[in-house]
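ugh ok so i messed up the first submission bc i forgot one of the chains. this is the corrected input, ALL of the components this time, i swear. 910 residues overall. if the numbers dont match what u have on ur side tell me asap before i send this to the collaborators (the ones from the other lab, u know who)
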Amino acid sequence: MVSVQDLHKKFGKNKVLTGLDLEIGEGGIFAVLGPNGSGKTTLIKSILGMVIPDKGTISIHGKSIKKDSNYRKQIDYLPQIANFPSNLKVKELITMIKDLRGNSTNEASLIELFKLEPFIDKKLGQLSGGTKQKVNILLTFMFDSPLVILDEPTTGLDPIALIRLKDLIKAEKAKGKTVLITSHIMSFVEEISDEIVFLLEGKIYFKGTIPALKTQTNQPDLEHAIASILTTNHV
Amino acid sequence: MFKILKYSFFDLMRSRWSYVYFAFYLLLGIVLLFLNNDLSKAVITLMNVIIILVPLIGTIFGVMYYYNSKEFTELLLAQPLKRSSIFLGQYLGVAISLSMSLILGLGIPFVFYGLFMSNAIWDFSLLLITGVFLTLIFTALAFNIALSNENKIKGFGYAILMWLFLAVIYDGLFLMSLLFFEDYPLDKLSLIGTVLNPVDLSRTLILLKLDISALLGYTGAVFKQFFGTNFGLIVSFTMLIVWVALPVLRIAKKSKKKDF
Amino acid sequence: MPLKKHHILSAILIIVLSNTLFSQNIRVCKTCDIKTLQGGINAAQEHDTIIIEKGTYKEIDVLVNKPLTIIGKDYPVIDGEMKGEIITITADSVTVDGLFIKNVGTSYTSDYAAIRLKRVENFVIKNLVLEKLFFGIYVEKSNNGKVFHNKIIGDAEEEYNSGNGIQLWYSNNIEIEHNFVQRVRDGIYLEFSDNCIIKNNVSSHNVRYGLHFMFSNDDIYQDNLFEKNGAGVAVMFSKKIKMYNNIFRENWGTASYGLLLKEINDAEIMYNTFEENTIGINTEGSNRIKYIHNNFINNGWAIKVLGACYTNTFTGNNFLYNSFDMAYNSKVNDNEFDGNYWSEYTGYDLDKNGFGDVPYRPVKLFSYIVNRTPETIILLRSLFIDIIDFSEKVSPVFTPDNLLDNNPKIKRITW
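and heres the new structure output, hopefully the right one now
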């Protein structure tokens, strides 16, 4: 599905990615983890084409992403901070994104699911952070693309919405889609993901299932496994 | 691109600032025309406003819009859209909505004043055309500065500095160099100096209408050819178009390489 | 005795009648006995009237040496075929009316004219149309005449090979009215000619001046229009010229003025309009001139004062939207500005007496800079220039500090 080879990227003097290789197959939920500044967001943004790599290639379905912006039709992306043009109404934003991407399949059911009807005619500037995140999720899931990238999807969500989100992600997986997630909430990651991609100092430190990680680090749960990686590498 | 343009435009058209800008010009037009009752004087005052204020507003709005819509831009970047069309769309959205405020704000009072029956219509149209050009140029320059500066405060500072330089400081340096080299033929130097600054260029363009008699008083053959014929008008407009095109091209180029 | 007296009276009567009542009409035409204008003149008695029928008469050096009235019917053409002077008048009381004279010869040694008046009195030159001329109507040492309703259309392009439309030389008490002169060197030129009246003429597109005075005193010109000339009117080395109600318009160019004053004294300039000239009035070495109730509109410079100009007064004029109201090339000022309206004036009138409470300073620093380095004109109306002008206004360094209008009008002055 996604294939990354020898990816380099530095911002000024700060080398963020130093020769990263990654293969992500069809279907399944992948959690991209790593300490702050390890290059998670840079990796995701590189895949999305928002960051231009200094070196290396990224291909999706075997096609390099360099030239053509149309490959993004195959990606649904949930950005970390949802900040929309404050003068637009929710309805208008939905129409606009639909207009930009093509027809959506299931916006109505998503609106229903996250109880967004009361806000549909409100301006985005007037919404609370949680509601904005719901709109954000709505915008991501209303299209039916084979690759879904979620950057900190749980931010600001209430428990009910969180459960709905998990169901949604699982449903996507069931459809055979590939889901990439970054998150700081380890319980969320542990519950939902099939595989972990652990980034450290610009490279893949670990890639595999959660049980495999636990065995490798000899720790009972994910949180401790991660912590042990960090202490062994930094102290 | 046109979709982005459309949304940016409607977004801005609904923003408070567009109304403030529009209301300002409306008020200015009304005060100049109906309290002053002197069309020639109004046109001169308007020239000053257009030469100084329009670039300032274009600069501020350009920078402000860019930084304020950063997250929205990131949302767009994840969509299957070309980068250049995202930024050019946003740029045009800002520039066009500002131009609309200018044209409508000044146009409405002038139309009520009976502009279409007055000889000043050409002077006035020229003013508006130059105003639109300056909006296009300075918004583009502002976008360039914002694209090159992640830091909002820095970007804002540079943008204001750029405006200050082109609107005031440049002319000071220009004047000093003319006085310094006064023993040499200065025809070409002064025309080149004018062409290199869009504010001076627009001012000269308007002067060709307002103060033609003074401009024709000067000796040099190059001057005479420039001011005395349509040549000056054509060169000025061409240069204004170049002044729009260059920063716009840089927006397209820069946006392709930028990381978000 | 009464009988003899009667005889003398009847003798006088006969003489008078033979001169007037019995004066003949002589017809000139292609099919008449007399086929040329010169032939008609030769055949005529004094005070006869020669009527020239429509047609083309190719003649030069026509000499009018007796008092005659020459009338053209339907504008007969007198064609000089570029060979030389066409009509020369050497007798008093000649009237020429209604001819179309063209193709005057051009020469660098003689000033060939369409019509020349030489040492004569009481002449009338009217309703002529002159085309392709060198000099048009040349009045030489002749007095008490009238030149009116003539149309003079030249094709001059350079000063050195063109002549003047109407030229007076040592001629006094001449009335020049309702003429239309264009594309010659000077539209109307007066040299050593006093007490003349120049009225209601239109002089335009002339290579040099619309109207030109040299060493001529006590003349009046009024209600004329001077448009698109090298310079509108030049008054030089002359005294007591009165200039009323004229319009000076669109005299554009490097050395172009609406009105050029050079070494003239005691003139009156009133009710004139100077519009869109490079320089409205350029005055040099001129003293005791009154400028009252003139309009200066959209000129490059309304008034440019060069050299020593003393005791001139500028009162009740309107200065409207000129690029510069005044230019001075010295720091000294002996001229008075009072009660003018300046469109650039930004002061206020708190006591509502119609005069601004702060004086107006008509000379700007920038005008001084442009005088020094003309190319800087390109910075006209720039914000930077406004700033330095303002600082000069607050504390004058380069411009005369007593050059002030202490009573600037708040509203445009009407009269």
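quick check: The interface with chain C takes residues 38, 40-41, 44, 47-48, 51-52, 167-169, 171-172, 174-175, 178-179, 182, 186-187, 189-191, 193-194, 200, 203-204, 207, 210-220, 223-224 of chain B (CB under 8 Å). that seems consistent at least. Residues 83-113 of chain B form the longest helix (31 residues).
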